[in-house]
Description:
Strand order of the largest sheet: 1-3-5-6-7-8
Number of domains: 1
Largest sheet: 6 strands, mixed
CATH architecture: Alpha-Beta Complex
Number of helices: 3
Radius of gyration: 14 Å
CATH class: Alpha Beta
Number of strands: 10
CATH topology: tt1808, chain A
Distance between the termini: 22 Å
Amino acid sequence: MSPQRRFHQCVISGLRVVLNAQIPEHVTAVAQMDVKLGHRMRPCPDVLVIDTAAADDDDRTFYTPDEVHLVVEIVSPESEDRDRKTKPFRYAEAGIAHFWRVENNDGRPVVYVYELDLATRAYGLTGIHHGRLTVRVPFPIDLDLDKLPR
């Protein structure tokens, strides 16, 4: 894995902190842990929201799709194709219901929010968020994207 840019690190850290302050107690936001999607297929999302019971096991090296409620990928120049095409396709195939893709727009995060269409096993775009992210699913969340903790 190539070194991450500062923007990438700040968004990972900030989202994790803010999500954990707002999401229900039965789930937890963690950073950079593998999700086992199949034999020899374990992508490592930047941020994921998982069952708290799974997060409480400190010996875990991966989580399973049924434990994952939301996956977040922050796009870097080196990972554009994977984060925009390959990973979302795999996450949808595995049945992970919610996916966010974060893009760097002149140093400001822009969040593309997707929800799984169970009939097609593909993600549908539900919104593009600049400055503020407000959603009701998978949990009520209201984030000031320009003021994420660094």
